[in-house]
Amino acid sequence: MADSQILSVIRMWAAIAWADGVLAEAEAEGLRRLIRNADLTADERASASHLLEQQVPLPDAYLTNLSPESRRGVYRAACRMAIVDHVFSDTERKTLVKLRDLLAIPAETAGEIEADVPGLTNG
User: What is the distance between the alpha carbons of residues 119 and 1, in angstroms, rounded to a whole number?
Assistant: First the structure.
């Protein structure tokens, strides 16, 4: 069964958080808060909770049905998740680039979003 849209977003954020191979406590707490507050079924909540237990890959196909504004919001949140532990690794950069491409966000737009995220270095 395919993920609901919100579970897909949580999966994407978990992939960003895990991109450097470590789920820092600040990242885990952000994901736990999102899972607690999201409108999920019991099964979806259980699936989402498992995302905290082991590294999650970024899916190859992604939320192409979202509006451009929603895709920018997903990317902005992913950028914030990438630096919540105050470490921005090359792996996290590569994951953000892959996500940007999956969400069909132009590089210029992504750069503007990244410029508004304190602590995120452009690359």
Answer: 37
Q: pLDDT for 64-92, tens place per residue?
A: 667 888 889 889 988 988 888 888 888 88
Taking the domains of the chain in order of start, what are their residue ranges?
5-115
User: Which amino acid belongs to residue 85?
Assistant: D
Give the Cα separation of 18 and 61 in Å (integer): 18
Closest CA to 19 of 80, 94, 72: 94
Cβ proximity of 14 and 84 under 8 Å: no
| pTM of the complete model | 0.68
Q: Please name the residues in contact with 40: beta carbons below 8 A apart, sequence gap of 6 or more.
A: 4, 6, 7, 48
**Angle at 42 (CA atoms; ends 41, 44), nearest 5 degrees:** 65
Report the length, in residues, of the chain.
Answer: 123
In angstroms, rounded to a whole number, what is the distance separating the alpha carbons of residues 51 and 119?
A: 25
How many angstroms separate the CA atoms of 29 and 37, rounded?
A: 12
